[in-house]
Design brief:
2 copies of one chain form a homodimer. By secondary structure, chain A is an alpha+beta fold. Chain A is built from 5 helices and 9 strands.
Chain lengths: 233, 233
């Protein structure tokens, strides 16, 4: 709640935390507290102004914690949003007038993203967040400011990184089947692969190591297990 | 020269324009004009504060033009730098006191980069740029603010994009030999490839189309020509 003097007026950070769990992709949202005027109650990405003496990375981590009590997530900067009108909608101005010293100031926001197992992180609302929730990616409501645009852009970045950088393996068990990998890809990329084609195209990938080990406790044709070999793309 | 009221105090853009020419990789630098105090004369990336009513992308394009008269380059945002002390060195504060209304203000800078054929762009110094030059990447002097760090980070992003996104093909002729491609890669990545290995690993790449055509005007074993197939990575 930045009614103090130590924030810089024109720069904020916003955090897009994706969570993967039970074959669903979700995003962490806060619902901002209502004040006198009910229209200030709105869903948003966790975000706030940057303080005078903190780096952007530190601000992202601290702000995520201050609103959701979630800690220890590696947040990566992915894009900065600076449309001159990104905070000028009436609904947003109402909220800013209640919470900011200088509500008319133009705010450029540096956006961060992360991908975690959502079951490992239970958010607890705090500061100006009245509620927090893991929202399925296809059920995201209208958000504050340009946060829907920021989320779309983060989702795009996530999809690219999943393929190019082999992001996401930390969401699988250390030893996994090709079916588990396929489900992860299908969930995040929102596509369906033909099972045989997926297996064919992935069996030879240098970043996948086939183990001499099969799934236990399965009677009929247990699946082979694989592990991820880092740095082999 | 932002002594007017329309800039936002905390946000600037900086442009890292890489130029490829004659098998050299260069970067576009400005030398800031001397004023009374000689220490204000310093090399820097082209950059300045963002104005109140312009988007970040528009600011990048306009500021590059205002300092170098270079126009029509596609600048891509790649990272935002926000170390709280990035403009607080004595040499930088001297310059800021001469040129900025609020020299103590913390400035977060949104950095852009581009890769062009340097021979196609002749910079002309303007505004607070006293000189402009294409500087070979291995001869870059100490720059203003954290611009060496920004340049290093842009160079890293360039190398990644060259490989992952097949950036850089627009620097080659429409029909090129594998030797020309190898030279481009070697120059930008600052590595040496074994000729046979390079040919072997690139001949089958889906983004390269072998043409039924050879280099003309060469007596002995003229090289095959290739062309780039977009969207085949």
């Amino acid at each position: 709640m930045n009614k103090n003097l130590t924030t810089i007026q024109n720069v904020s950070v916003d955090c897009v935390v994706f969570g993967y769990s039970n074959e669903k992709l979700k995003v962490l949202l806060i619902k901002r507290k209502a004040i006198q005027n009910v229209s200030t109650e709105q869903f948003a990405l966790p975000g706030d102004l940057v303080e005078e003496n903190e780096s952007l990375d530190d601000a992202a981590e601290k702000i995520l914690f201050s609103l959701t009590k979630i800690d220890g997530i590696f947040l990566k900067q992915f894009h900065t949003f600076g449309d001159p009108n990104r905070v000028s909608a009436i609904k947003d101005q109402e909220w800013l007038r209640a919470f900011r010293k200088n509500p008319e100031a133009r705010v450029v926001t540096v956006a961060y993203f992360a991908l975690v197992k959502s079951e490992d992180y239970q958010p607890v609302p705090s500061s100006f967040a009245g509620e927090t929730q893991w929202t399925p990616i296809n059920e995201v409501p209208m958000l504050a400011f340009d946060h829907n645009k920021i989320l779309d852009s983060a989702y795009q970045a996530l999809k690219e990184k999943l393929i190019e950088k082999q992001m996401g393996f930390e969401l699988l068990p250390k030893k996994f089947t090709l079916t588990e990998l396929q489900t992860l890809y299908e969930t995040i990329l929102n596509v369906k692969y033909d099972k045989r084609n997926f297996r064919k195209s992935h069996k030879g990938k240098p970043f996948l190591k086939e183990l001499n080990e099969k799934v236990k406790g399965v009677a009929h044709r247990p699946a082979n297990l694989y592990t991820y070999k880092k740095g082999n793309n």
